Structure to design on (322 residues):
DNA sequence: CTATATTCGGATGACTTAATCCTTTTAATG
DNA sequence: CATTAAAAGGATTAAGTCATCCGAATATAG
């Protein structure tokens, strides 16, 4: 099975970049109640700093994270990891229809689309959604015993001479 | 479940635009052996003409379509609709890993990624792939008795006055 | 109350994907 | 053989997503 390029790079995930970043952070965020700096989170996971900051803001507005300004501020989980589902995170980042309403891109809502792939796609979509709804951050953490990100308060970017 | 915007519009499908356009055309292309003009295909489905032309070229190079130049030329299916699978089309347009190798975007191939969602995602991914591999263009046509695109040779864009 | 450290929010820039335009090549027809 | 009609292919533009920058707001500490 050959494939021909049209101009876009191979997609790394069915989710958009902000969603992937969000999940990467949430899965490794410790649940000990301490606030973590956006800057340090980004550094530890090697993600673009200012961009991740914006994503953390969104997660705060959606009630998934809790933010605190000023010195000793930062971000932490707003609820226990077992109370935050994968689905909730994805919906927060991608919107209410994370997989689009139609595989072929037809619009017109649930009813308006007469596309032939629709019935089969709905089945698969429901399986995806169900999986995401029953999987929590805690599940993800435990399943592979993820190491939480480091505890160091801050490294002042060690400017040499 | 609230969701916050970050700058991108709600995705209409998990596939890229060219893939959706390709499927839309293929599903409605008649299998009577006649060549159809890129221009007319685009007009009938209300898709951007020159862009669709490029996509048709790719499908030709992959052996899904057959093209013929000059007058009375155009595009037609290279094989019977029951011999062209959904998977083949998607792979042709999206590359060998249509869903990305990892939900969180980790790279490192099948083994290098220790992401906690991996096992469950692999299961779902296999279901998606299996569905696409066993679904042919013919299945899609029959399931909803799609009307093939019109037979008119060409309309010269009827410039009034 | 001042200084400092952080999130917040808007404006801007860079890069990727979508789409167009124009020239060349190929084939059919008179 | 000239004309015409179509796909093929490259260069260019437009739109969308990703990412950065900077000023404002807010909270802590001295």
């Amino acid at each position: 099975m050959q494939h021909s390029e049209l101009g876009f790079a191979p997609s790394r995930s069915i989710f958009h970049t902000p969603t992937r970043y969000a999940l990467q952070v949430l899965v490794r965020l410790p649940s000990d109640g301490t606030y973590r700096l956006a800057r340090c989170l980004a550094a530890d996971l090697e993600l673009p700093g200012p961009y991740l900051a914006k994503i953390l803001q969104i997660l705060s507005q959606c009630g998934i994270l809790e933010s605190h300004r000023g010195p000793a501020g930062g971000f932490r989980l707003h609820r226990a990891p077992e109370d935050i589902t994968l689905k909730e995170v994805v919906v927060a980042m991608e919107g209410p229809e994370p997989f689009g309403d139609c595989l072929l891109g037809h619009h017109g809502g649930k009813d308006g689309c007469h596309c032939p792939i629709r019935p089969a796609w709905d089945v698969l979509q429901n399986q995806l959604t169900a999986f995401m709804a029953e999987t929590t951050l805690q599940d993800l953490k435990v399943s592979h015993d993820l190491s939480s990100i480091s505890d160091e308060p801050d490294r002042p970017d060690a400017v040499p001479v």
